[in-house]
Automatic annotation (TrEMBL):
The keyword Cytoplasm applies. The keyword Cytoplasm applies. CDD domains: GRX_GRXh_1_2_like (cd03419). This is Glutaredoxin. One of its GO terms (cellular component) is cytoplasm. Belongs to the glutaredoxin family. CC-type subfamily. It is found in: Cytoplasm. PANTHER family: GLUTAREDOXIN. Residues 14-75, 127-189 form the Glutaredoxin domain. Transmembrane segments: none annotated. Keywords: Cytoplasm, Redox-active center. InterPro entries: GlrX-like_pln_2, Glutaredoxin, Glutaredoxin_subgr, Thioredoxin-like_sf.
């Protein structure tokens, strides 16, 4: 319980998640859309994850993730957060906690610059994947492309100093969850679900044909 409270108090917005949880991805995406950059703690990748999960349940979070804290206070799980967003309370909570600020001209310019950086990177080569080093789905998509004879350019945004802003830019471009985000010939194909659907339908290989090297 002490570790949970300590982590929850270190940043204005904190989300406890699991890497495989789709609702966790949705709540993170909502916070990014609102302009917040929450601290994200993935319990399935933390040695103390089981104990932290029990502590979150003791706080009333059921299921245990996503568990959201704003200004050090427990807000609730996905259902509670979505309700607060629908009635307009969530954004004001984030502003009051200084998790977000009213958008200024300089903020807007920064967003455009990071969008431009993403677009420059996707133009480097025919097949580009934005990923995170700890993401198992990113790894799976990379392996799929390699098995199909393609060596994509892989940008790990958790190792990029502009990673948070690039993550927001990818979400604004239509990515459901920022990684893995796959681009072919400069066009956004999508994330894991879209790539796998294209592969199963037989549509992926024709898209990759110009970039395959089976030697």
């Amino acid at each position: 319980m002490d570790r949970v409270r300590d982590l929850a108090s270190k940043k204005a917005a904190v989300i406890f998640t699991k890497s495989s949880c789709c609702m966790c991805h949705s709540i993170k995406a909502l916070f990014y859309e609102l302009g917040a950059s929450p601290a994200v703690h993935e319990l399935d990748m933390d040695a103390s994850g089981r104990e932290m999960e029990r502590a979150l349940r003791a706080l009333g979070c059921n299921p245990s993730v996503p568990a959201v804290f704003v200004g050090g206070k427990f807000i609730g799980s996905a259902k509670d957060v979505i309700s607060l967003h629908v009635d307009g309370s969530l954004k004001q909570m984030l502003i009051d906690a200084k998790a977000i600020w009213h958008i200024r001209c300089t903020d807007f310019v920064l967003q455009i610059l990071k969008m431009d950086k993403v677009m420059r990177l996707v133009s480097e080569k025919g097949v580009v994947i934005f990923s995170k080093s700890s993401c198992c789905l990113c790894y799976a998509v990379n392996i799929l492309f390699q098995e199909l004879g393609v060596k994509p350019i892989n940008h790990e945004i958790d190792k990029d100093p502009d990673g948070r802003e690039m993550e927001k830019a990818l979400i604004r471009m239509g990515c459901n969850g920022p990684v893995p985000a796959v681009f072919i010939d400069g066009k956004l194909i999508g994330s894991t679900n879209e790539v796998m659907s294209l592969h199963l339908s037989g549509s992926l290989i024709p898209l990759l044909k110009p970039y395959r090297s089976l030697s």
